Each structure stands twice: as C-alpha cells, then as structure tokens.
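During the reporting period the student researcher (J.K.) took over the structure-prediction task from the postdoctoral fellow and processed the backlog of single-chain submissions. One of the processed entries is reproduced below for the supervisory committee.
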Amino acid sequence: MTDEAWPWLVVGLGNPGREYAGNRHNVGFMVADLLAGRVGARFGRHKRAVAEVAEARLGFGGPKLVLVKPLTYMNLSGGPVAALAQFYKVPTTQVIAVHDELDIEFGQVRIKFGGGEGGHNGLRSMSKSLGTKDYARVRFGVGRPPGRQDPADYVLSDFGAAERKEVDFLVDRAADVVESVIVKGVEPTQNLYHGS
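J.K. obtained the following structure tokens:
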C-alpha cells in the first residue's frame, strides 16, 4: 500500500560520465532524464548523497517524485539510494529501480515487485543497502549478448545501429511504465503493459 504523505523514489541505474552515456547499462539514467524533462525538473547534486536528484510532482497536485541518478558507478548504487530513502523518509514499497535487463529481449519493458537481482550488480547493491528486495523494478530488455561476448562487455557497449532507431521510443515507454506504477500500482501496470 502506498502512502500519499511520502514521495516516490525513482532510481535510474547507470554509470556517470560521458563515455558511458549511450551504454545499454545506462538506460536507467536515460529514463530518469526523460521523466525529469516531462515534469520540468532539473537534476542537481544532493548534499546528503553521492547522487544527482530532481524533485517534482507527477501532474498538478499529483504524487511527489524524487528522481535519482547515483554517481557512485553501478556496483555501489545502493549507498546513495539508501541515504536518500532515509533522507526523504520513503518506504521501500515506494522505491522504483529502472535498469537494463539481460534476461528480457530488446524491445520489451517489464515491471516486477521484489524477487532476485538476476546478477545485476546495481540491484544487488540496492537490495543490500536497503536491507530488502521489496521494491519495484522497471526492467528494460537489452537481450543477451551475441555469440560469446562477455555480458559485462555487452552492457557496457552502446546500442547497435538498428536498436538505436527504437531506443527513444522504448525509453519513452519505460517512463510511461514508471508513471503507471506510481498512479495505478504494479499489478494494474503489469496487466496494461505485459500483454503488448
């Protein structure tokens, strides 16, 4: 159950720095940037956490949003997320992680609540620092690497030429999914988006 009194903490997982900006691993940052643009918010460094934060409301008089881009690199994302959850007094049931997902094919966006991390180091760090796996995840499918390419190298490479034509649309869709989770909840959002 969500509590109107507390904001939603939407965490875009990625790596800071221009050289990582277009990587598959950075779709969380891309979605966070798009959401900030939609609500007219600007990112700035937070005084209590190694992260960029943008605060806004979702629609006029809507739920409060805290958009987060941790600046600690993916494997240490949990520290800033836990610090910000504490600072804003956000229950973990109102934390949403947006991340790349190898186990979902490119072109699909999925939502789930809780569960394992599937080898994703950003999620692993978040679960450890938050002390729970009970938070929502918006999973942006990037698919498995071709041939024998190492998955770590694959997620740290940019989208291919054919994929790039669809990335903007998919980032937009992932942002829609985040907004739907906040307004409608996880299950109604699954019903809405998982069939298509």
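The committee noted the following: The beta strands are 8-12, 44-45, 51-57, 64-70, 95-101, 109-113, 136-141.
J.K. will present the remaining backlog at the next meeting.
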